[in-house]
Amino acid sequence: MWAHPGKPLVFMGAELAQSAEWAETSSLDxxxxxxxxxxxxxxxxxxxxxxYREHPALWRADDDPAGFHWIDANDSQNNVLSFLRLDxxxxxxxxxxxxxxxxxxxxxxxxxxxxxxxELLNTDSSAxxxxxxxxxxxxxxxxxxxxxxxxxxxIVVPPLGVVWLLAPPGS
Length: 171
Fold this sequence. Notes:
The chain has one helix at about 35-55; strands spanning about 70-75, 80-85, 90-100, 105-110, 115-120, 140, 150-155, 160-165.
């Protein structure tokens, strides 16, 4: 939701993984933060918000079709969806989401430029209560066309998780 065009909307309590709907007559269930899984969700929302503020590719071109590009919207066999966010000034973020309950190791994803891409966010990080399946902070894209892009990388996409990859500087 944070990577897709438009503004993210989180209802009160969602940042704590509160199961009860928020009501104006009562406080949020702050006691949920006594549990590690709820603190993990809170940490994830904090990091999503920080990344959103710090990376113009996630918001600068929300109302411009040039700010969004599908990598692959049709990989139903693997339950994976991928797209790019671009700020128009060179910053590019690839978002890869795995809707399957198993990790996708060696998943090839098309990228607009070769080089070392930084794993900006991994929703399956152990810091958020996930299993820790990921790319150890970076992936290497090579000049090997894929998904209509001039470069590609083999990545690990965690189960029921999303990774954001930040492009190396360039045009």
